[in-house]
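pipeline stage [seq->struct] | target=MASE1 domain-containing protein | organism=Streptomyces asoensis | residues=338
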Amino acid sequence: MAAVVATPDLRRAAVFAVQTLAVALGYYAAGRLGLMRQLVVEGAIFTPIWPPTGVALACLLILGIRCWLGIALGALFVVLSLTSLRPVVIGNLVGNTAAPVCAYLMLRKVGFRNDLARLRDGLALVFLGALTAMLVSSTVGVGLLILTDKLGTHSFWPVWLAWWVGDAMGVLIVTPVLLVLHGMRRPLHLSRWKEASGLALIAGALVPLATRSPVSLLFLVYPLLIWAALRFQLVGSMLCALFTSVMATIAATDGIGPFDRLTRVEVMIKLQAFNGTMALTALLLSAVITEQRNTRRSVELACQELVEVLEHLTAGDAPPGRPTKGTEDGGLTKDTES
């Protein structure tokens, strides 16, 4: 009996350990990718997009609050790859873990759905998951730099803004992509694959041109986002936004294209403004389109059911799913009573 009882417990413990390690490795891998491109503001190094925040929130929404330990371990791995473990580093670990956890709790409080099929879900992810919850990590991180005299008080707001926007961008761009990929259940039809391939080819040619041309052509990506949102909803628009954001970040950190001859602060402002508006456009437009399509399908289904009911009434039959009078009286008709 002891072995029978222990087996489910051991299985749950093993699943928890595997999930925790997977989340930690995913967080670490995302962190290493984010550190490949950096900007300097007021002497502080920051990443324009911090993907681990998006990975952390997506894991919480998919696996639940129990994966917070994996997030903390992943943040620890990232820090240990850069520096030694010190008290200020422990404070940053707490902030980087608490921010996505706060985002998860707030989203669950308002009834957030992972499929992002409603406009309210997109708005919740933007204003609660990204803009509000990421205040925790940026405030804790920059506050510790001020307290340990690693940053002057006059530099608080520029560095805090850069940190906050970088974490928020990770949520806006990475979290929707991971949620959509996790929720995909069926592949596209052959005709849709042809259109998707055409969209990918055009994006692959147009986005590098827009982000590297000395002439400011960043606005050219918005028709691609609209096309992707109209035809492929969230998965298409967010993948397009992710690719564009990566290319824009590479151009900004290299100081080329529309980011040439700008100061570091101007580069940060222009890049983050572009990434933010693009991510908001892709996310909210896709949510609106998906919500309208779901509403239309519900109306069409209701009309179809109404037509079936009217057909049965015209034929003199009872509508499907509704009992006849004889059945309501216990299954006895006048003939059977006699």
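stage status: PASS
auto-comment: The first strand starts at residue 39 and ends at 41. The chain is about 75% helix and 0% strand.
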